[in-house]
Inverse folding.
């Protein structure tokens, strides 16, 4: 029983606390040697006081874990930030980044000691850290752009805090809009694991479907630890209550991890549903980045959303590859985009309020992203339209909409 509860908790942690953020942390993220910072980066530690920079320059801070179990991700974000600094320096822009390790016990004091010239703070990664920041009213002096999926109820997004990250509904909206706009699919099904993680995801999907005018024809669950029952459950899910073609659905959302979906999808073919769009979650990407044995036949009609795609060819993506060496991930892309974004925003006056910042954000609409682009509405609420990827025998690729359309129509 304890094991079952633990598994459920980890799955919730992995899905709802971003996309791949806490999932990567739970599965174990290797802590790499700290990257060499460019000369203008100051890591604020026990022996290093906060430096005051001239007000005429753009100065920002990043609240990141650089030690402990979260340190690996923090360092990857810093790698991207350092690359962006070097790029901006080469372009003649002076930007200084002050990095504060949120794993240090006095990180709140260091945040409080940031100079007035720091307009924006990037981070933190973890909700509990930001709760402490908000409790101490530290977000009143600086604009915090958090790397989290959602903000606590104690703050209002777009007024006294912002997100530089996707929300759980972003991936669902991305999938539904992709199916609706490209294939005219407005009737869908949801098959989810019967556990807290699955039930929560199914609820979010149902709510977003209503917002987009999508009809959920059937929603069913399966016991995640009893695969012997899955075939019968899939059969009932596909045909229950569907007495004619008008009652059927053309796409199904399978939010479970790749290892479970690999076992579920063959049952769709076994029960003669060979022309249905299979839509997965961002959890797929964690496995598919290293998967070498993808069944291309079973997943030829499958797509999943991702905030990052290594094959992106935007101007920013090419710059990332030039200024950040080695293998890249969402985390380097996040740091790279964030520093350049804040440089584009420019410095804020001390009296700047949420309305001023939201107006300034609207002036960045032509910003070039290396990760999936984030947009903010006029109230400062963030939304990320993700890449739609598909698993193939040669690895993950950007979804080929034309090819998928042909296969769906056969």
């Amino acid at each position: 029983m304890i094991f079952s509860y633990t598994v459920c908790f980890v799955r919730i942690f992995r899905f709802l606390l971003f996309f791949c953020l806490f999932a990567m942390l739970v599965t174990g993220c290797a802590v790499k040697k700290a990257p060499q910072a460019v000369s203008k980066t100051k890591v604020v530690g026990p022996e290093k006081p906060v430096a005051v920079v001239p007000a005429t320059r753009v100065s920002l801070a990043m609240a990141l874990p650089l030690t402990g179990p979260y340190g690996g991700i923090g360092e990857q974000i810093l790698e991207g930030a350092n690359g962006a600094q070097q790029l901006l320096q080469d372009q003649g822009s002076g930007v200084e980044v002050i990095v504060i390790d949120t794993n240090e016990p006095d990180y709140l004091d260091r945040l409080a000691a940031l100079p007035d010239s720091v307009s924006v703070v990037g981070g933190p990664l973890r909700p509990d850290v930001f709760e402490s920041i908000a409790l101490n009213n530290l977000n009143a002096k600086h604009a915090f752009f958090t790397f989290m999926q959602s903000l606590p109820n104690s703050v209002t997004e777009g007024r006294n805090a912002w997100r530089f990250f996707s929300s759980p509904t972003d991936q669902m909206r991305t999938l539904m809009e992709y199916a609706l706009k490209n294939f005219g699919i407005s009737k869908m099904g949801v098959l989810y694991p019967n556990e807290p993680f699955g039930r929560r995801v199914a609820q979010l999907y149902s709510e977003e479907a209503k917002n987009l005018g999508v009809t959920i024809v059937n929603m069913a669950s399966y016991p995640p630890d009893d695969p012997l029952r899955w075939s019968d459950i899939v059969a009932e899910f596909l045909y229950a209550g569907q007495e004619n073609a008008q009652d059927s659905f053309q796409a199904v959302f399978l939010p479970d991890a790749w290892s479970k979906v690999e076992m579920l999808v063959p049952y769709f073919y076994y029960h003669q549903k060979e022309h249905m769009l299979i839509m997965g979650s961002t959890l797929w990407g964690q496995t598919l980045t290293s998967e070498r044995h993808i069944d291309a036949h079973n997943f030829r009609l499958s797509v999943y959303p991702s905030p990052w795609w290594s094959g992106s060819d935007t101007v920013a993506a090419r710059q990332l590859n030039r200024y950040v060496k080695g293998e890249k991930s969402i985390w380097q892309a996040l740091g790279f985009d964030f520093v350049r974004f804040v440089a584009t925003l420019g410095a804020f006056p001390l009296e700047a309020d949420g309305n001023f910042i939201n107006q300034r954000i609207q002036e960045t609409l032509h910003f070039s992203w290396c990760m999936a682009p984030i947009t903010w509405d006029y109230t400062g609420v963030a939304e990320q339209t993700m890449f739609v990827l598909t698993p193939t025998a040669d690895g993950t690729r950007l979804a080929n909409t034309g090819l998928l359309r042909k296969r769906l129509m056969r």
Notes: The longest helix spans residues 71-90. DSSP finds 14 helices and 15 strands in the chain. Residues 296 and 392 are 5 Å apart (CA to CA). Confidence is low (pLDDT under 50) at residues 1-40, 44-56.
